[in-house]
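Troubleshooting: if your tokenizer reports a length mismatch, compare your output against this known-good record of 154 residues.
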Amino acid sequence: MASGREKVRMSPDEVEQLLVSSSKVQVATINQDGSPHLTTLFHVVHQGRLAFWTYPSSQKVKNLERDPRLSCLVEDGEQYFELRGVSIQGTARIVTDKAEVREIGTAVAHRVAGGVDLGEAGRAEIERQVAKRVAIVVTPRTTASWDHRKMLAG
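Known-good structure output:
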């Protein structure tokens, strides 16, 4: 007989679907004093891994330069029996290569814009942002998932 945890665990395909369909991720890094630093960012799945872009002077990047460990949470649902989520513990790769920053940043911008064509002005703004941002790609160590909708199924 499967445990409650086993019953709500998501399959790899379900995890991927949630990561691809969700736009926001909560990211926790470790401050110098050991306390957590938590923020929410827009993300994409880049080459099968969670990715986002940000400013290199941000606290999260300073923390990741010192200690690459992070925790990420993508979740969905309002009521208890709707809750689903994916929690990823892993390490960050800080991307400074402008071609890869551009690729990730463009994907994030398209997601934020709801998938519509950003037009010439939008592409120019992305290019302007590429010059002053880095990207972060998450390498998972452990992944936990849950889908409380499965509690109501047979």
